[in-house]
Amino acid sequence: MNLEGRWRYLEETWRVDKMQSNVLQLKKKGNYLVVEGGEPPPGREGMELQGIVSEFKTYLEVGGYARSTIDCYCQYLSYFLHYLQELGVADLKQVSHETVRNYQLLVGTMDLAEETKALRIRPVKRLFGWLLDSHRLLIDPTEKIRETNRKNRSLPEVLTIGEMRLLLDQPNLSLRMQIRDRAIMETLYSSGIRLNELVQLTVHDVDLGDHVLVVRKGKGNQQRVVPIGKNAGMYLKEYLADIRPRYAKKNPQERRLFLSNEGRPVTGNTIRSALFKYKKAAGLQKTASPHSFRRSCATHLLQQGADIRYVQKLLGHRRIKTTQIYTRVYPIDLKQTHERTHPQL
User: Fold this and answer.
1) pTM of the complete model beyond 0.90
2) Does residue 125 register a pLDDT over 50?
3) CA–CA separation, 298 and 301 (whole Å)
4) Which residues 6+ apart lie within 8 Å of 87 measured at CB?
5) What gap in Å lies between CA 217 and CA 159, rounded to an integer?
6) Which residue in 30, 107, 133, 316 has a CA-CA distance of 20 to 30 Å to 12?
7) What residues are labeled active site?
């Protein structure tokens, strides 16, 4: 909505004297606009920092954002609020474009990765975008503020096919726990699902007949069905037949797919620790996090000629631009692709 549209909205919703509405004027105050002589509706008198952030957190929870995303946003917003408090700013209506720009410049001087710098700015932009959309503000002080220069961002690290094969071979398949770990690793690599999606899977979400997983709690509460390969299917079948029933004896009501030997759902930290252990055993220098498996899955599919829109759907990306970063990780040879796919009539 442009400024004129917001002015119309303001005229319709603010309690002003209709006889005087034709002479009311917009008055600039800080980074927002008020109507001289008008009375703002409840909730617009001021925006105390912590209270608004608490409302924003509720908005994210209702919107189906992942817990990890909400926690990350709240953490980085706390840095911004501390910055405002140092300036003596107690109301978000007092925040101007210059305020946000100076904060961005401060973040830019920090010894942080470019992606981390972007994460410091992203929730600030999301917060003010929400305030604008909910008509709490008429002007967004973060407008034209970019998270970071994307050209400066380092490309995500991806394991080669050989490195991935070496990593997958690390679990000792004579041990029950490591058979479970192999099933987890094969599932991550084959499907490209997120760690949070994996730990939320239940036994009802696995269809070994059709070799698919149903991701019911994807990012933004989006559900999708993803295929799994033969290796993932084979290790999942062994885990479900021989390992999980033993673990589930201690907690028979638990329906989560991957369990600890105590019968409790496996946590993200447990999986991260296991992958780090296998990475060291394999002698790999690269990062081998759960997200490395996701990135490697996407990149290897593109290497083998998969259509980028298929990869977008597999990963559950809402926007194709998010998926296109993998074409930078692995530049596609257009000539080779054309020769392989064009019908040459």
Assistant:
1) no
2) yes
3) 5
4) 99
5) 27
6) 30
7) 194, 219, 291, 294, 317, 326
